[in-house]
Design a protein that fits this description.
Number of domains: 2
Largest sheet: 5 strands, parallel
Strand content: 5-15%
Shape: globular
Structural class: alpha/beta
Distance between the termini: 28 Å
CATH topology of the largest domain: Rossmann fold
CATH architecture of the largest domain: 3-Layer(aba) Sandwich
């Protein structure tokens, strides 16, 4: 029996999926698995995060996204956070060979609808997608108790949870704040009004639960302290 955690939302139907994965053979195998266990009829492929975002912005409308954590243009949770900012309403399932508890916890806190270890049996994929379609969060059984109890929450976990609430534009502005840029320069770089930047900065600080730009930068750096995934964990 696997661990499912309730979330808000009605039962979903997955007819179209997008797989974001840079290994063609695994991508093909995963596509066939999804067709068999989840009834998915159409599968879009993206070999990097940038391409996935382009497809979504060009009008691709998947019902679910399956994401690898290590891609040529991102590493770690950056891809998940950016995808959630691009398509906040879409469930994203992380499928990775990295099954360390801290990584799974951080992925769920960053907004993943579920986590399935790579090379899992088809039955596990079937169970996972059935749970996610019911509006539940799915995690591997071995990590379920820890996640459910909420034990071991670290400052990094909390920082990731807060950052995952930012919109894509807010994330861009926070990135520029971290570079030491002031509102006027940010407005120029992003081709928006300075008043718009000020409104976004206010919203960013509210979502992060801070009262100054310096505190916002500290939250961002706390999340980044998790750093890239160790070389030994990279998907092969």
């Amino acid at each position: 029996m696997q661990d499912h955690f309730p979330v808000k939302g009605a039962k979903a139907e997955f007819n179209r999926a997008m797989i974001v994965e840079d290994h063609p053979l695994f991508c093909d195998a995963l596509a066939m698995t999804l067709q068999v266990v989840a009834g998915i009829e159409q599968v879009d492929h993206a070999d990097r995060l940038g391409r996935a975002i382009e497809l979504i912005e060009e009008g691709a409308a998947p019902d679910v996204i399956i994401l690898d954590l290590n891609l040529p243009d991102v590493n770690g949770l950056e891809g998940l956070i950016r995808l959630k900012q691009t398509a906040p309403a879409l469930p994203i399932v992380v499928v990775s060979s990295i099954d360390e508890p801290r990584v799974i916890r951080s992925a769920i806190l960053a907004g993943a609808a579920g986590f399935v270890p790579k090379h899992s049996r088809r039955e596990l994929f079937r169970t996972a997608f059935a749970a996610i379609a019911r509006g539940e969060i799915f995690v591997p059984e071995s990590n379920g108790d820890t996640l459910a109890e909420g034990n071991g929450m670290t400052p990094q976990d909390e920082a990731i949870r807060r950052l995952s609430q930012l919109t894509r534009q807010q994330a861009k502005i926070l990135e520029q704040i971290c570079e030491g840029k002031m509102n006027k320069q940010i407005a120029y770089d992003l081709s928006i009004a300075e008043t718009t930047v000020k409104a976004h900065v206010t919203a960013i600080m509210r979502k992060l639960g801070v009262y100054s730009r310096t505190q916002a930068v500290l939250i961002a750096r706390e999340a980044q302290a998790m750093g890239p995934l160790p070389e030994s964990w990279r998907d092969g």
